[in-house]
C-alpha cells in the first residue's frame, strides 16, 4: 500500500509504494543537479535490500554527471542486494547509454512497474467486491 509521504525538491519528487521508493527526476540531470541528487539517493539506499525506482520520463537532458549518478545508484543498490529499476522511454535512454557502453546494465521499464501497485489493486478489488 502506498504511503502518503511525498517530498518535492527542485528536480525530483519521491514517494514510497510498498517496499519500493519511487523517485521521479525532472528537468536536466547535469553537473549542477547530480551531486544533490546523489546525496539523496545515497540516503534512500542506505539500508539493506533497497528497492529503488528512478522515473526518468520527465528528464529533458542527461549528461555524463547524470550517467555517473545512475551508475553509482546501480552499484550501491546492487552492493546491498537490492533492486534498481529505471522508468524511461527505452529508445531515448538507449541513445545515451549505448555510447557510454551501459546499454545492458540497467533494468528499464516503459512505465512504472505493475508489481509496485499489485497490493493496492488487489485491495481495491476486494473493497469493490465486498
Automatic annotation (TrEMBL):
Instruction: Output the InterPro entries linked to this UniProt entry.
Output: Anti-sigma_ant, STAS_dom, STAS_dom_sf
Q: Can you give the residue ranges of the STAS domain?
A: 19-128
Q: What family does the database annotate?
A: Belongs to the anti-sigma-factor antagonist family.
NCBIfam families named among the record's database cross-references: ant_ant_sig
Task: Please report the name of this protein according to its UniProt entry.
Answer: Anti-sigma factor antagonist
Annotated organism of origin: Streptomyces cylindrosporus
Amino acid at each position: 500500500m502506498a504511503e502518503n509521504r511525498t517530498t518535492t525538491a527542485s528536480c525530483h519528487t519521491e514517494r514510497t509504494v510498498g517496499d519500493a521508493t519511487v523517485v521521479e527526476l525532472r528537468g536536466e540531470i547535469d553537473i549542477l543537479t547530480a551531486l544533490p541528487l546523489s546525496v539523496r539517493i545515497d540516503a534512500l539506499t542506505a539500508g539493506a535490500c533497497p528497492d529503488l525506482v528512478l522515473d526518468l520520463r520527465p528528464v529533458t537532458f542527461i549528461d555524463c554527471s547524470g550517467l555517473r549518478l545512475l551508475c553509482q545508484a546501480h552499484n550501491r543498490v546492487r552492493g546491498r542486494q537490492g533492486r534498481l529499476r529505471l522508468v524511461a522511454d527505452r529508445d531515448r535512454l538507449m541513445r545515451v547509454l549505448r555510447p557510454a557502453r551501459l546499454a545492458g546494465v540497467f533494468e528499464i521499464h516503459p512505465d512504472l512497474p505493475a508489481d509496485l501497485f499489485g497490493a493496492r489493486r488487489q485491495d481495491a478489488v476486494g473493497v469493490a467486491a465486498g
